[in-house]
């Protein structure tokens, strides 16, 4: 026979902490498919006897485990364990295990390899599972064995969900054994208690059918603490497809309440009815929901785009993000003799110098303040004339404005000193603006005016963030048509047809088939997208950014393009590292950028 220890992985240091006792609702290992029917699931029912106290890596005096599947017993593991410490008298009275019985028994580090091999690829079952699992995890951590993190089913928790107080006064193992008339009665010995738990488990499984619980994953979730609303509305998740797409929770009047997306609609919607879902607003949404509508999509990108469009169209009350794309604003240079910066909702076809879109007016104002710090753009809102003058404001007296209102500067010189740097920074190279702001940060930092330097730093970040974003968007939206492919998880290719930054068509070519015919079919049925003005002429900025993220993945292949995809060589993108420092670093770190 082979040595069980040889197949059990060891770890170099203990990684167990006490909080593991409360961790049974975390994501379990992947050894058992949660969709496996209960009748086909292999369970290992375990019970421990201990010296009492908290799990510290020792204290186990006996292990009993029974492996079952489909009601048939597959194997048994039972052994006494020498804890290496004296047995408290009350434990001896309770269990009948004496010190003399444990002296010849193996220590836990010799028992663990066989036990871990016995529970491999099975669902672990215990009565009051946090206690038993806590001792086992602590022992593995102390002696260098990696805990396999199996899926765990607690019969005590399951009984609390299945049985009412009218049926049993409590959920103790002895009470449940009597109720289900188990063949073996619990005796506070590990193997007897494990065998009794097996019969209790089978009795509880027999009751789960009435609750529409048929798989091991559903049984584990059913045992957890879910709200009455989640339990009552669980049927809404039935019959949904296991494909990528969008799901819509609808109210009784068919009004969309919440829109989401997933690579597996059925699995994602089911998660809303489990103990893992604890968001208060989602609980409120579930109470109002009457049905779930599924929109199947070719792949994840199409699902993400459809989600954005549905949220923008319906503004569901329980979605927090992407609801109001029309609230975006732009920072533009006005068309007049002495232009200034203006925050507007929409761009006109005649607008030629602009930056955005910004997600809020406050973000646009922060970027505008950055330009005002860097270049002598006037900040007043008067419409100035080339012929008549107006009294200058305080900014002119402070040297913060060249006073075009008093004609102290010609329109040509103003354009060269103030307007051209803005146009250049937004379209091509923001170097002049960046240098001016870094110089100001350096002066403020040298004078120990750190709070003011931090304000300028935030303005620099706002300018760079908007410039990088706009130039990145414009590079894609300037392409009339682009076809791209990405390997699908199950073979074949995920295909996307993008026109002016908008997803016009999507599909999947089957494995072993050349994707070209599928691309041709997608093109023939794709949405017609007309060119427009600005960096996002045909879609929201968020949609184009989702497409960009998909296209920029290493595995994505560009198939066809109507024009080249390029960004300015000296564009804002080369300041990404500086932007990261501005967002996360200190003013002193930024001042070194100029040296």
Descriptive notes:
The protein is an alpha+beta fold and about 600 residues long. It has four domains: about 15-225, Nucleotidyltransferase, domain 5, CATH 3.30.420.10; about 230-325, GIY-YIG endonuclease (3-Layer(aba) Sandwich); about 325-465, no CATH class; about 480-565, no CATH class. It is about 40% helix and about 15% strand. The chain is built from 21 helices and 15 strands. It has helices spanning about 90-95, 100, 110-120, 130-145, 155-160, 175-180, 190-210, 215-225, 230, 265-270, 280-290, 300-315, 360-375, 395, 410-425, 430-445, 450-475, 515-525, 540-550, 575-585, 585-590, and strands at about 40-50, 60-70, 70-80, 125, 150-155, 245-250, 255-260, 290-295, 330-335, 340-345, 355-360, 480-485, 495-500, 500-510, 555-560. The strands form four sheets. A five-stranded mixed β-sheet has the order 3-2-1-4-5, with helices on both faces. A four-stranded antiparallel β-sheet has the order 14-13-12-15. Strands 7-6-8 form a three-stranded antiparallel β-sheet. Helix 5 crosses helix 8 (about 215-225), helix 6 packs across helix 7 and helix 17 runs antiparallel to helix 20. The longest helix has 28 residues, at about 450-475. Mean pLDDT is about 90; it is low at about 10-30. This is DNA polymerase-3 subunit epsilon. InterPro entries: DnaQ, GIY-YIG_endonuc, GIY-YIG_endonuc_sf, GIY-YIG_UvrC_Cho, Ribonucl_H, RNaseH-like_sf, RNaseH_sf, UvrABC_protein_C.
């Amino acid at each position: 026979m082979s040595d069980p220890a040889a197949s059990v992985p060891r770890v170099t240091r203990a990684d167990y902490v006490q909080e593991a006792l409360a961790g049974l609702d975390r994501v379990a290992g992947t050894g058992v498919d949660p969709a496996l029917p209960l009748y086909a699931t292999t369970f290992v029912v375990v019970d421990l006897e201990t010296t009492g106290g908290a799990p510290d890596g020792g204290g186990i005096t006996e292990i009993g485990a029974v492996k079952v599947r489909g009601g048939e017993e597959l194997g048994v593991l039972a052994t006494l364990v020498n804890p290496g410490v004296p047995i408290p008298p009350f434990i001896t009275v309770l269990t009948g295990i004496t010190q003399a019985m444990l002296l010849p028994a193996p220590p836990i580090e010799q028992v663990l390899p066989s036990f871990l091999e016995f529970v491999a690829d099975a669902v672990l079952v215990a009565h009051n599972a946090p206690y038993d699992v806590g001792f086992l995890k602590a022992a593995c951590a102390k002696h260098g064995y990696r805990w396999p993190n199996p899926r765990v089913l607690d019969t005590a928790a399951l009984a609390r969900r299945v049985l009412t107080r009218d049926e049993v006064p409590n959920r103790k193992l002895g009470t449940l054994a009597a109720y289900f008339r188990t063949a073996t009665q619990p005796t506070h010995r590990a193997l007897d208690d494990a065998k009794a738990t097996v019969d209790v488990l089978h009795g509880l499984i027999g009751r789960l059918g009435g609750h529409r619980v048929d798989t091991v994953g559903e049984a584990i979730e059913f045992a957890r603490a879910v709200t009455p609303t989640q339990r009552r509305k669980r049927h809404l998740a039935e019959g949904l497809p296991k494909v990528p797409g969008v799901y819509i929770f609808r109210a009784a009047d068919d009004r969309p309440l919440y829109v989401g997306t997933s690579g597996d609609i059925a699995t994602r919607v089911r998660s809303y009815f489990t103990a893992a879902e604890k968001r208060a607003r989602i609980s409120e949404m579930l109470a109002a929901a009457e049905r779930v509508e599924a929109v199947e999509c070719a792949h994840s990108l199409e699902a993400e785009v459809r989600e954005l469009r549905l949220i923008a169209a319906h503004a569901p009350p329980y979605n927090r993000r992407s609801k109001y794309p029309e609230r975006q604003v732009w920072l533009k240079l006005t068309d007049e003799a002495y232009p200034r910066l203006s925050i507007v909702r929409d761009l006109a076809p005649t607008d030629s110098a602009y930056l955005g879109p910004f997600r809020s007016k406050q973000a646009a104002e922060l970027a505008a303040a950055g330009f005002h710090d860097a270049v002598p753009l006037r900040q007043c809102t008067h419409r100035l004339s080339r012929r008549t003058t107006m009294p200058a404001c305080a900014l002119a007296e402070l040297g913060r404005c060249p006073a075009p209102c008093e004609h102290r500067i010609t329109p040509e010189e103003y354009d060269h000193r103030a307007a051209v740097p803005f146009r250049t920074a937004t379209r091509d190279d923001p170097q002049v603006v960046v240098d001016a702001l870094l110089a100001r940060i350096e002066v403020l930092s040298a004078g120990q005016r750190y709070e003011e330097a931090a304000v300028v730093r935030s303005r620099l970040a706002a300018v760079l963030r908007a410039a990088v974003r706009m130039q990145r968007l414009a590079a894609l939206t300037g392409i009339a048509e682009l076809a791209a492919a990405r390997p699908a998880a199950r073979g074949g290719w995920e295909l996307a047809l993008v026109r002016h930054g908008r997803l016009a068509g999507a599909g999947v070519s089957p494995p072993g088939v050349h994707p070209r015919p599928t691309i041709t079919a997608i093109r023939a049925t794709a949405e017609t997208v007309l060119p427009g003005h600005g960096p996002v002429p045909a879609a929201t900025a968020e949609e184009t950014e989702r497409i960009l993220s998909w296209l920029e993945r290493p595995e994505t292949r560009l198939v066809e393009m109507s024009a080249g995809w390029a960004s300015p060589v000296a564009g804002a993108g080369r300041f990404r590292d500086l932007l990261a420092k501005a967002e996360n670093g200190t003013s002193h770190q930024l001042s070194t950028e100029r040296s």
